[in-house]
């Protein structure tokens, strides 16, 4: 097993929610879904096969679905665990807090869309002859997702998840 | 002599048609039962954790307030905050160290012994150790010399 697969294995709830988010937005946009692998141990730990998307808005929503859903759930699930474990630095607290922290961080680590998700959106901007600004945006989207993907080598995904876990406590003046 | 048994070549469109024939669309907003069960378990755990939070939440807010007061050199205010945190039983390294720092900076004469008691048994990184040594009253270093 290569490190990426190993990380996916230990953070599998994030992969599952990532694929659920894609499927959820496909359903929301009325794009038929033919197959979903919520988690597997291959190099592609999860995938959604859906019908070709014809509207740019739908393609974008399907691509960024995990960024929205995984990020929000990461913030919510880590919040209650953050208070005793990080804000108060307590040890030996209820095991539920450790489970929620692991779940939340796992979800946050898989929040970023894959470069392929962004490529799908970019390809559609070409096919639909979208205007120049949207094309620039699509290029930026591909660049950001590719960069995030590359930076996983230096644990960007983990840092992003940890950063998310601090959002609510900071907003509520707990740290 | 070799024989080749290549599959007949098909176009991407034909492959897609074949795929669709084998994979009818999944009903919208339908998920496997195991996902629904896991989701329910997560909801139960989250709800349970929220019932445990109130006692931690108040302490965390007071602790954060104490840090601000300490930074602003309002040691009496910070001391009261930390006394309530520690009296509620929240003895962690961070809470003990902050209270000790407040005692050493704000009340070096009266609370010196209590500050040392709070720091006893803790291990520190170099930076943390330096921060504490920087605010240790002269009395501590004299006692160290005498011990030697």
How is this structure best described in words?
The complex is a heterodimer of chains A (175) and B (148). Chain A has 7 helices and 2 strands. Chain A is mainly α. In chain A, strands 1-2 form a two-stranded antiparallel ribbon. In chain A, helix 2 (12-28) packs across helix 4 and helix 5 (115-127) packs antiparallel against helix 6 (132-150). The model of chain A has no long low-confidence stretch (mean pLDDT 93). Chain B is 71% helix and 0% strand. The relative contact order of chain B is 0.06. Chain B is an all-alpha fold and 148 residues long. The mean pLDDT of chain B is 92.
Strand order of the largest sheet of chain A: 1-2
Classification by helices and strands of chain A: mainly alpha
**Which structural class is indicated by helix and strand composition of chain B?**
mainly alpha
Radius of gyration of chain B: 32 Å
Query: How would a crystallographer describe the biggest sheet of chain A?
Result: 2 strands, antiparallel
What is the subunit arrangement here? Answer: heterodimer
Number of strands of chain B: 0
**What is the CA-based Rg of chain A, rounded?**
17 Å
Which stretches of chain B are low in confidence, meaning pLDDT under 50 for 5 or more residues running?
none
Strand content of chain A: 5-15%
Short characterization:
The complex is a heterodimer of chains A (175) and B (148). Chain A is mainly alpha-helical and 175 residues long.
List keywords for this structure.
heterodimer; A: 175 residues; mainly alpha; two-stranded antiparallel sheet; 2 strands; 5% strand; elongated; B: 148 residues; 7 helices
Indicate the topology:
The complex is a heterodimer of chains A (175) and B (148).
Chain A (H helix, E strand, L loop, with lengths): L2 H8 L1 H17 L4 E5 L9 E4 L5 H32 L7 H15 L5 H13 L4 H19 L5 H16 L4
Chain B lengths: L11 H11 L10 H39 L3 H13 L5 H14 L5 H8 L6 H10 L2 H10 L1
């Amino acid at each position: 097993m290569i490190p990426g697969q190993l990380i996916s294995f230990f953070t599998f709830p994030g992969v599952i929610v990532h694929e659920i988010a894609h499927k959820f937005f496909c359903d929301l946009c009325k794009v038929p879904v033919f197959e979903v692998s919520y988690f597997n141990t291959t190099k592609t730990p999860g995938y959604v096969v859906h019908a070709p998307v014809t509207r740019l808005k739908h393609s974008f929503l399907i691509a960024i679905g995990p960024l929205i859903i995984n990020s929000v759930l990461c913030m919510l699930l880590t919040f209650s665990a953050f208070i005793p474990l990080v804000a108060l630095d307590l040890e030996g607290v209820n095991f539920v807090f450790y489970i929620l922290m692991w779940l939340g961080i796992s979800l946050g680590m898989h929040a970023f869309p894959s470069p392929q998700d962004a490529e799908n959106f970019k390809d559609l901007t070409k096919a639909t002859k979208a205007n120049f600004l949207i094309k620039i945006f699509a290029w930026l989207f591909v660049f950001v997702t590719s960069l995030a993907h590359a930076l996983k080598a230096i644990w960007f995904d983990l840092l992003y998840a940890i950063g998310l876990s601090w959002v609510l406590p900071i907003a509520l003046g707990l740290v | 002599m070799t024989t080749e048994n290549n599959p007949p070549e098909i176009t991407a469109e034909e492959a897609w048609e074949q795929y669709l024939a084998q994979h009818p669309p999944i009903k919208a907003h339908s998920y496997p039962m195991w996902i629904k069960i896991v989701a329910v378990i997560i909801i139960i755990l989250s709800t349970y954790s929220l019932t445990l939070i109130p006692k931690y939440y108040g302490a965390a807010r007071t602790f954060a307030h104490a840090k601000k007061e300490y930074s602003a050199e309002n040691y009496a205010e910070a001391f009261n905050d930390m006394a309530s945190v520690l009296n509620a039983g929240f003895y962690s390294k961070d809470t003990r160290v902050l209270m000790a720092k407040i005692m050493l900076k704000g009340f070096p004469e009266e609370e010196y012994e209590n500050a040392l008691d709070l720091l006893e048994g803790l291990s520190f990184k170099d930076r943390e150790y330096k921060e504490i040594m920087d605010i240790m009253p002269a009395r501590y270093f004299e006692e160290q010399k005498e011990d030697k």
